Amino acid sequence: MKIVFVHQNFPGQFLRLSQSLVAEGHEVVALGMVKQCHLPGVRYIRYDPAPGPEDPQHEARYSPVIPRLRRAYGVAHKARELAKQGFEPDVVVVNTGWGENLFLKDVWPKARHIAYFEYYYRAKGQDLDFDPEFPITNEEVIWRLRLKNSMQLGALDAADAAVAPTRYQRDTFPSYLRDQIAVIHDGIDTKRLMPDPTVGLQIGKDGPRLTRHKPVVTYVTRNIEPMRGAHVVFKSLPDLLDIDPDLQVVVIGGKGNSYSGAAPGGISWYEHFKARIDRPVDWSRVHLVGNLPYDQFVRVLQVSSAHIYMTYPFVLSWSSIEAMALECRIVASDTEPVREIVTDGVNGRLFPFFDPKALAERVRETLAETEKSAAMAAEARRIAVERYDYETVCLPQWREFLRIK
């Protein structure tokens, strides 16, 4: 079969799936905006957004529509070139978040078009109005969400089938659409993500060597910002460090912005949160290591004694399930996306999102109740393998959903 993947930052969620289909002998073509992509067996074709209206003064106002339309035209023009050369795919899979699938069904009408959905925005009841500390004061922010959603609805109209990676993400869509969206996770490599009690690692050239013999608390986020609860984690640092004089905290994450917009005052969220901690912090025991290569990320989680995961009601991070596969002792925010994978007292401990003292107390319990914590960590791995292993669970689901022959 001939399968096309479209993602402006390819491979994105399609890394493992595209490689599996290549290994099975299928012809795989990818369209994206990154300059180069060297995946064995994948024919990668770069496209440029089509020229369009530019209005820097009102860029934010029109950002949910104009850039997406330019991508949609750009990728459709490139697809049309391929069609004129005689290339006709059997299946086209598109991450719809960037507007890229809008016209592809008209270019390749015989193909089965799959819309990959991540999130449907709402003004109430999800991430936008969740955090009272950072209220939305500009009503045009809500208008922009409606524009984003209009693009999602257009994407659904231009697809033959749709899929979302988690039940929560599927259920952000209006109830009348949910039955049209399958739930299939991207999958994780649970054979590679194995616990290793013997692991150790050095923090920098002059930092401490961390092992499982002394308590290590870990926290992972793409960037230090409110969406993933970094402000709550930072407020909890004094209480976390009070648990044990040997305790070390490792924070994996950058200082840019992914989801939460810019911090006030022209500084980073990291600087903003750090300045608001109400008690002294021994920063020699808090290690901000930035965004690590994947192998190092895994080693940090393998040495973890308690792993913090937090999120607004929003897209669930891959790292949360990867941490479960690594038998991390999970301490997580009691928010709806998390409750899909963590049951309090069964495979992790939950705490109220806005309560840093409760966070620290749950970490203290995790470190003190070693046998119970180990049992919950083992159950976390069992669930990760049973529900989210790529090879045995997710790939077969994808193969059936895509009707791969």
Write a brief structural summary.
The chain is α/β, with parallel strands linked by helices. The protein has 2 domains: 2-187 and 390-402, Rossmann fold (3-Layer(aba) Sandwich); 200-388, Rossmann fold (3-Layer(aba) Sandwich), CATH 3.40.50.2000.
Please describe the structure with a list of short key phrases separated by commas or semicolons.
about 400 residues, alpha/beta, Rossmann fold, seven-stranded parallel β-sheet, six-stranded parallel β-sheet, 15 helices, about 15% strand, globular
Textual characterization of the structure:
By secondary structure, the chain is α/β, with parallel strands linked by helices. The protein has 2 domains: 2-187 and 390-402, Glycogen Phosphorylase B (Rossmann fold, 3-Layer(aba) Sandwich), CATH 3.40.50.2000; 200-388, Rossmann fold (3-Layer(aba) Sandwich). The chain has helices spanning 15-23, 59-62, 66-84, 104-107, 139-157, 167-171, 175-178, 230-242, 269-275, 294-302, 318-325, 336-339, 356-368, 370-388, 390-402, and strands spanning 2-6, 27-32, 42-46, 91-95, 112-116, 161-164, 181-183, 200-202, 209-211, 216-223, 248-254, 286-290, 306-309, 330-333, 349-351. Helix 1 links the parallel strand 1 (2-6) and strand 2 (27-32).
